[in-house]
Write a structure and sequence with these properties.
It contains 16 helices and 11 strands. The chain has helices at 25-35, 65-70, 84-94, 106-112, 116-122, 147-154, 159-164, 176-199, 209-217, 237-240, 261-270, 280-283, 288-303, 308-317, 335-339, 381-391; strands spanning 16-20, 39-44, 74-78, 99-102, 127-132, 203-208, 247-248, 253-256, 322-324, 343-348, 352-357.
Length: 392
């Protein structure tokens, strides 16, 4: 419940983020900055972030699960940016900010009067972060972008085909492009703040989804095409093998990744298969491919002889890298997550109890913390605007 996590200033205490982001990329970025201690002012339309209405909440129509997962440690200010009054209020907020971040299309934010030049005229040392789908200068610049579109253009939808042989292109079952680019937005923000701390200069920062995500997801998969003059294939061999999956144990699943042949021999021996590489089933295999299949079949057979917990203990004792593979239904009961209170139950006043995942980063002097629950639409409008009056 509320209070389990001790609130602390955090390493970004004193930094104010003016947050005009919606959906996933931007809110994930600004929540991370909030977890690090920044004062995040979430500027919303009076109708709220459009992510609010996805999924069910206990009482409200605008506190859906994904919104709640991405919007803690923020204060919500509801402003109609199409009105002169709303624009004036945002300009006053900008004057108090260190970072202005949005994920609108560039022409849209300029039409509202809050392009980089407009914002820098109000606060010359502002760090202006613009998260876009496609980098400026290319033919896709200015087009709408969502996670599936970026997964498609980046080649990510082709990676599962390399893994399982199914010729159908498919995205990963995660909003992985948005979340990855959200982290790049955090990195870019912190780097620009560091530059400002050294020089006093603000600057415009562009975070293009296609370029940043492609660099992330394809780093290992360019592989055999790294050198144009050397024949090779796309795809990092050890990551696209169909054998790359957890093994079934007596009561669950286990991922095993022996760091050496000796590690494999020990695991197989513990699973009742001694001297595996000299066994008849291995040596009689017709060719290298068949020996690989024989090896993985022995690993599967060995894993099935013990429970997951027995393997966890034995692998630790014998220095064989292994870890339980949680199913979604066992995730909350994982002993490590329970010991570190990673999944924490807290309370939103309008909804009641909710479950969140605590920040994973740890700072000895300025720890991250959950200071504010995900806000309702405009929950802090009066509070923040009153602060502005006090500062003028």
């Amino acid at each position: 419940m509320t209070g389990k996590t001790k609130a602390s200033p955090g390493p970004l205490h004193g930094i104010r983020i003016i947050d005009l982001t919606q959906f996933v990329l931007g809110p994930y970025a600004t929540q991370t900055l909030g977890d690090l201690g920044a004062d995040v002012i979430k500027v919303e339309e009076p109708s709220g972030d459009r992510q609010r209405n996805q999924g069910k909440a206990p009482k409200s129509q605008n506190m859906g699960p994904l919104y709640v997962a991405l919007n803690r440690n923020k204060r919500s200010v509801a402003i109609d940016l199409k009105s002169d009054e709303g624009k004036a209020a945002l300009r006053k907020l900008i004057a108090t900010g260190d970072v202005f971040i949005h994920n609108m299309r560039p022409e849209a934010v300029k039409r509202l009067g809050f392009g980089y030049d407009d914002v820098a005229a109000i606060k010359p040392d502002i760090v202006y972060v613009e998260a876009v789908g496609y980098g400026s200068g290319g033919p896709y610049s200015g087009r709408q972008a969502f996670d599936d579109l970026i997964q498609g253009a980046s080649g990510a939808c082709d990676l599962l085909r390399l893994y399982d042989g199914n010729e159908e292109l498919r995205p990963f079952p995660s909003i992985i492009a948005d979340k990855t680019c959200g982290l790049f937005a955090v990195i870019a923000t912190l780097a620009a703040l560091q530059h400002r701390a050294r020089t006093g200069e603000g600057q415009f920062v562009e975070v293009p989804m296609l370029e940043t995500f492609t660099g992330f997801i394809q780093a290992e998969h360019i592989w055999g095409k790294t050198y144009p003059d050397v024949p090779g294939k796309f795809g990092h061999p050890t990551t696209i093998t169909p054998h790359r999956k957890p093994y079934k144990t007596k009561d669950g699943y286990l991922v095993v990744l022996p760091a050496s042949r000796e590690g494999s021999v020990k695991f197989l021996e513990l699973g009742g298969i001694p001297d595996a590489y000299n066994s008849e089933r291995f040596l009689s295999a017709a060719d290298g491919k068949a020996r690989v299949e024989a090896y993985y079949q022995m690993m599967r057979d060995a894993a099935a002889t013990r429970t997951t917990e027995e393997w966890m203990q034995l692998c630790a004792e014998h220095h064989v890298p292994a870890m339980r593979a949680n199913e979604m239904t066992t995730l909350f009961d994982d002993p490590h997550f329970k010991a570190v209170d990673f999944f924490e139950e807290r309370e939103i006043k309008s909804e009641g109890r909710y479950r969140t995942m605590r920040p994973g980063l740890k700072f000895a002097k300025t720890p991250c913390s959950i200071r504010l629950e995900p806000p309702t639409v405009g929950e802090h409008t009066d509070e923040v605007l009153t602060e502005l009056k006090a500062q003028t």
